[in-house]
Prior knowledge:
The structure holds two protein chains of two kinds.
Chain A: E1 8-13, H1 32-41, E2 49-52, H2 59-63, E3 67-68, H3 72-75, H4 78-95, E4 101-106, E5 116-117, H5 128-140, E6 145-149, H6 156-162, E7 168-175, E8 199-204, H7 210-228, E9 232-237, H8 254-264, E10 268-271, H9 281-293, H10 307-310, H11 314-332, H12 334-342, E11 347-356, E12 361-370, E13 379-385, E14 390-396, H13 402-414, E15 422-427, E16 432-435
Parallel strand pairs in A: 1-2, 1-4, 3-5, 4-10, 6-7, 6-9, 7-8, 9-10, 14-15
Antiparallel strand pairs in A: 11-12, 12-13, 13-14, 15-16
Chain B: E1 2-7, E2 11-18, E3 21-29, H1 35-47, E4 57-61, H2 64-70, E5 77-82, H3 89-92, E6 98-100, E7 104-105, E8 111-113, H4 117-129, E9 134-139, H5 147-155, E10 162-165, H6 175-187, H7 189-205, E11 212-215, E12 221-223, H8 224-227, H9 237-250, E13 256-261, E14 266-272, E15 275-276, E16 284-285, E17 288-289, E18 297-300, E19 306-311, E20 314-321, H10 335-341, H11 350-364, H12 368-395, H13 402-407, E21 415-419, H14 423-434, E22 438-439, H15 447-454, E23 459-466, E24 471-474, E25 479-482, H16 489-506, E26 516-528, E27 532-544, H17 550-560
Parallel strand pairs in B: 1-4, 4-11, 5-6, 5-9, 9-10, 13-21, 21-22
Antiparallel strand pairs in B: 1-2, 2-3, 7-8, 11-12, 13-14, 14-15, 14-18, 16-17, 19-20, 23-24, 23-27, 24-25, 26-27
Helix pairs in contact in B: 9-15, 10-11, 10-12, 11-12, 12-14
Amino acid sequence: xxxxxxxxxxxxxxxxxxxxxxxxxxxEERLLYTQDQVFEEGLLDLDNIVExxxxxxxxxxxxxxxxxxxxxxxxxxxxxxxxAGGAITxxxxxxxxxxxxxxxxxxxxxxxxxxxxxxxxxxxxxxxEAIMVEYIRHKYGPKKIAIVDTDCHHGDGSxxxxxxxxxxxxxxxxxxxxxxxxxxxxxxxxxxxxxxxxTINMPFPTNTSDEGFLFTLDNLILPILDExxxxxxxxxxxxxxxxxxxxxxxxxxxQGYAILNDRLSPDIAVLEGGYSIESALPYTNVxxxxxxxxxxxxxxxxxxxxxxxxxxxxxxxxxxxxxxxxIYNLWKNRESQRAELIKGGEYLRRDKGIFYDTDGISEHQExxxxxxxxxxxxxxxxxKASTGNNIFAVVIPGQSCPTCREKGEKIFKSxxxxxxxxxxxxxxxxxxxxxx
Amino acid sequence: MIIGIDVGGTHxxxxxxxxxxxxxTAKVITNQENLIKSLMEATxxxxxxxxxxxxxxxxxxTTISTNAIVQGKTDRVGMILAAGxxxxxxxxxxxxxxxxxxxxxxxxxxxxxxxxxxxxxGIEDTFxxxxxxxxxxxxxxxxRNPGLETEIADIIDNSFRHISFGHRMSGNLxxxxxxxTTYLNAAIWDTYNAFVxxxxxxxxxxxxxxPIYILxxxxxxxxxxxxxxxxxxSILSGPAASIMGILSLTNDSxxxxxxxxxGTTTDIAIFAGxxxxxxxxxxxxxxxxxxxxxxxxxxxxxxGDSRVRYEDGRLVIGxxxxxxxxxxxxxxxxxxxxxxxxxxxxxGDRGKALKAVEEIAxxxxxxxxxxxxxxxxxxxxxxxSAVNEMLLEINNKPVYTVHEIFEGKKIKPEVVYxxxxxxxxxxxxxxxxxxxxxxxxxxxxxxxxIGAALARTTTELTLLADTEKGExxxxxxGIQVRIPDGFTREDAISVxxxxxxxxxxxxxxxxxxxxxxxxxxxxxxxxxxxxxxTGKNIRIKAQVKPGLIAGFRKEASNVRQ
Lengths: 436, 561
């Protein structure tokens, strides 16, 4: 591990009085033992670890990222404002250089929340990392940002939000979608026409252990990051790849998480999933905190840790090596693939069926993007949900070109009120959000 | 009648209270080599000629333990740590006699790994070879299950003079602090117990049967013989004495700031609704962060005698003190000299004060008055910005529930109490800067001794009940018992309050001082597998909070009517 100490900010918000339902994995008890372990280890007394109280995200922060139907206050609870606010606080402390890096151990999580929000899916209502990312850009100007999502579930929400954004590299590593929620995250999900290659998905076979993760880190993630040269690296630090997690089938350990974090060296980490609340989370979180702070984490192990018992098979190793090399080639050839994808067209449309498992809502969405060489491209969305809501949205991307902006403004103006329940206009550069 | 004595670094202050009114006060020079002698002198100064039969109690605040630690006059302690996984052992080593042993208790108090008899015996042999007489045994999460620590103690024989157990120090989680607290407790054991013995011998020679109490860092008292078992509790009682004194002299229940402006430092404390705030985990002494309950104080290196100089184009104050103010023959200009120059006070030699201020005025090329004003203004600003910083820190303390984030209580001081030499000249400026009125309590010069005399007995207990395990632990009392399946939060609160009451009475509390308060109250449903509830995890912490003895409060409110 690196031997230099770093000043690490910790935003800890376990929401001890908030649950999706009393027996849901996202319940009051989830971070209880993590707090016990962090307190007992005395981490907050170390002079290079500082705890900060989370701030509150605002409706404006949410509207910069999401189209909430009918509006932001109706789809969230106070706890969401705190977890998104906690992520923003982490970013603020890093951007203001009060700390070298920061870790927001907050709940509820967010990486399954997509751009359009009709309700909760995968325990998520709003995407706390995406809200943080756009907050950073709004306050500190354009930034190239890489999100490395190490949650066991594919971060389909983050993928959806950044699909067309060439300035946000979204890399998700996760358990193969054929064996787990949400069932997506395959290598051919590779970004929209204006940002092809800036969404990277690496599915792992079940029972992948630390070796597989670290191999992927060293041979895929770090080389791509080197080429992308982000201003900031964010880790969506889900901890459900742990061998003890009750809702996944992977074999990682606290040591694996700590080493991964040490080598990735994110500026900001934000907790996502992780539901082995007693036998994994206390140790994975302590491991990640120590790794971020540059303090010896080699003694952080689960009481029942036995690396031999959880080691992946040679067959898994081989599958991962092949997959990594295949995906790295995709990345290398992204430009030529883009030419083939757009084939001189002006707009590209994708149709999506989205199921909100937590709230039991289904949505049909048509998303159209203008092919653009100057910016992420104007996006228009038609979305119809089983709640009865039928909406239309115009999204002007950040750092937009004049043509995309002009066209977007025109479309919003000319779309007649009454043809939908709600018509939205989102303009990131000007921080404008309109509803009619 | 009650005697309160505060043995400070320089002076020993004593006060005799008769029906809660000051009858006599005394100030003698502290004899650091022989604290008992200072105690005797101070006692005789206020009690000679009084009727020993009338004496209800004596409360002592002493620097004996603090001095032992600060001056390094401590005993070697053999430390046995059961650390399990976590921080590197190198970060936990507190002295060269620290040894690690197998055995690990997890966050729920479940024993994951047992002790190794041979290993512990080996450590014991090393201690004996080294001539170590004091042992500290500390396990990670031992507050959740004290069994491992006592098992280690059972393996080693009882030839050591004393063994301090981590789980007895506090119910709070924090392994490194538990190690430090246990170490300090054992390291000052002999010194403190010798002190207790000397006091008891002295008392034995007098004709009094009045109980003797010791003031603790949390502004509460404990009977002297009970204090012998936990010497750590007696450190840093000096600041607590002053804070309790200010509380007694003002006796109201507002949010307030208390400032003790001394020669070298200014100490800041905060009252929330008339109760002084406690350190969240414990006090810090000589770089050791501990779990010893203590009042929250912030000390800044600014006082009436701080050295003032002009450096790199700007005025600098403190933190060092070269001696008394120039007006009293000191070598450097000080804030006190500035106040004299401005005519805010007429103490000392005005000529010397003016000359000292002129020295710096010359460097900056301004008039004496301008410089004095600048000096005075800077001192007041430094103090008030430290107060504001402290309030900000308290009001921004992380909380862990949605309710507290949205409804969280904030401290909004309505008054600042100021004691210490420069209190009178500075009060009108400090209150203007802070934006709330100031108040200078009467008899502030012996506030510390009065604080000791009027403090009540305080203590706290932490209870963890885990109905899945079917077990309840109150570590500070060494209690670990089975509980029935249907054990509820209400049951836990009632057990915790009962045990707290017993503990307080054992420490010498009086029934009508048992102002018991539940300070932590959490219940978590434990869900395992697919949504199956397996039990409840109940966490209760209760305390007798710092405050003044009941009779005094009644008396004071009678006076007001």
